[in-house]
Each structure stands twice: as structure tokens, then as C-alpha cells.
What does this fold into?
Amino acid sequence: QNYYDLIFRSTGDADSNGPFYVRWYYRIDDAPTADSSILDFYAIGGGTERMSIKLNTTGNLELWDSNSQIGSDSSAINDATFHRIEGQFSRSGASMTLTLLVDGVTAATGTTSDNVGGVGRIIFGMLGSTSSYDTYWDDFALSDSAYPGAGVQIMLRPDGAGDTNNLTGGTGTTFAEFDEETPDDA
It folds into this structure.
């Protein structure tokens, strides 16, 4: 396993219903020898998986709730080119709406009532894979307003020391509390 663990809601906020949208560029040259989860939305507390995007042995992507596939497989993406992959999670009452887009086209979407709850954590990479294959990730983005769409995200870098104390020491409680360098478009 090789993965990133992104907690985007604090435990003080509790889980959130969204909507949340993710976008990244993804390239694989070969398909795995076993189906492999590549991105999972979780409850903040950890072990409750709400949504998963899986790469299967034929090089197609699949959208899953906690226990079953939602919709059909995407077309194969194991063609050694970067594809824009997007996902959407939202909860309303006793159901969740999940969507998977590949290169801006809906590959799978549906509503589920399985293991319904909010999310606050994303784990992405090679998750629990039983095979070895190379993956390339670029330009991961998360939004709570709309699909990020095509393009790039400019990485902002702090221009001075800072820590979590700064988030509660100013007038707000967001990363706007940090001073940052002017983006250089690199």
C-alpha cells in the first residue's frame, strides 16, 4: 500500500454531508492483477467507508458505496495517458449521491442508502492492492462548491513559520490566517 490520508474536516466540525468534489489527473500503464481501491471517502473518525473509486483488472474504474458497485464500469484507462478523474459525494437524509466522471464525462452515478453518513477524510493512492503496478497522480483538488474541472491548482507556500496555533489566534479559523508567497506558476 502507498497512499495519502487527507483529513479535511476537523473532529470539532463532526462529519459533513457535502457536497464534496474531488479531481485529479491519473495515469496507469498496466492494469492491476487484483481490483484495487484508489480513492475512499471516510467518516472523520476512521473506519466507516462511504464511497470508493476502484481500478479493476481490466483497467476500468468502478464507483462503490460501502458494499456494492454503483452503475457501470468506466471505459479502460490503462493506456499510458493522463485522464481527469472526478468524484462527487453528498448526503441528504437517509441517502447519499455518488458520482464518477472520467475526462469530464459521467461514468457512473447513483443514490444509495447503504452505510449512510457524512465524510471528512479522503485516503487516496494504492489502497490494499494485492498487485504491483505503477500509478501517476497529479494536481489533486478538493472543493465543496463545484467540480474543479480541467486545469491546474497553484500550490501556495507559507513565507514564514506557522502552526495550528495561528488558525485560532487571528480573526478567522482558516488557512487565510497564514501569509504566503506570491505564486510563481511553477
In short: The first strand starts at residue 2 and ends at 7.
